[in-house]
Each structure stands twice: as structure tokens, then as C-alpha cells.
Specification:
Elements (H helix, E strand, L loop, with lengths): L2 H27 L1 H10 L7 H17 L3 H19 L6 H23 L6 H8 L5 H4 L1
Helix pairs in contact: 1-3, 1-5, 3-4, 4-5
Length: 139
């Protein structure tokens, strides 16, 4: 990739991190309220730890560019599921904005899934290093 493309992909990963990490942390801080919101929409509260882990782990993995395609795909699926469960039929202009923002998030994540993290990532660093030498490979 060219430097400008790598910079754009890195910036996209930073923006995704800046969106999802605070969301995950906010759900910890507002645990009862979030669980109540989920329950009001027919989603069992016992899923909340999985929701929090998804947002935090995927955000960090994407920021550093580790297993980027996998985590981008998972987070895109998670985001689309959130649209279906919470924002499918918006009733206010704010709900419509949230729905569209979630769809844009998923679109960006799918682009990241399709193209990877770029050269400025842990994925690229590990690929440049090549396979690690194991005793079986050394023979």
C-alpha cells in the first residue's frame, strides 16, 4: 500500500477504536441501565458481558491491527445485529440518525474486512517476520 492509503486505513482504525471502546466502557459504567434497555428490546441481560467484551476486544484489536479481518467482520456482524435488534424501525429523527450511523459503521468495518489493516499494523509486522522457526521446521 502507498503511504497515503496506509495513513487512511490507520486513521479509520483509530476512529473505529474511538467509537467502540468508549461504548464498551460506558456499558460497564451504566451496566444496570444498559441491561434494562436490552431487556426492554427483548434481548436478555445475560448477553451484556458478551456485548461489552465484543466492543472492547474488537476495538483494541482493530486499533493495533491484529487479526484485523476477523475482528472487523465480527464487529460488522455485531453492529448489523444491533441495527436489527434496536434500530430497525426508527420512531424519531434521532433513532433514524442512529440507525444510519450504525449502518455506516458496518460499511466501514466491511471495507476493513475486505482490505485488511494496511502496512502500518501488527498484522503486517507479523507477516513481514514470516513464520517462526520451530524445532520441526529447523530439521
Amino acid at each position: 500500500m502507498k503511504p497515503i492509503q496506509n495513513a487512511a486505513v490507520l486513521l479509520a482504525r483509530i476512529f473505529i477504536f474511538a467509537w467502540f471502546l468508549p461504548a464498551g466502557i460506558g456499558k460497564i459504567a451504566q451496566y444496570a441501565g444498559t441491561a434494562g434497555y436490552m431487556a426492554a428490546n427483548g434481548v436478555p441481560g445475560w448477553l451484556l458481558p458478551l456485548v461489552i467484551a465484543t466492543e472492547i476486544v474488537c476495538a483494541i484489536a482493530l486499533l493495533i491491527g491484529w487479526k484485523t479481518r476477523l475482528f472487523a467482520f465480527l464487529l460488522a456482524g455485531y453492529t448489523l445485529l444491533a441495527v436489527v435488534l434496536f434500530h430497525l424501525h426508527p420512531t424519531t429523527p434521532t433513532d433514524k440518525i442512529i440507525q444510519m450511523a450504525e449502518l455506516v459503521d458496518a460499511g466501514g468495518l466491511l471495507v476493513l474486512f475486505a482490505h485488511g489493516a494496511g502496512d502500518w499494523s501488527l498484522d503486517a509486522l507479523l507477516a513481514r517476520r514470516g513464520p517462526t522457526n520451530t524445532p520441526a521446521a529447523a530439521v
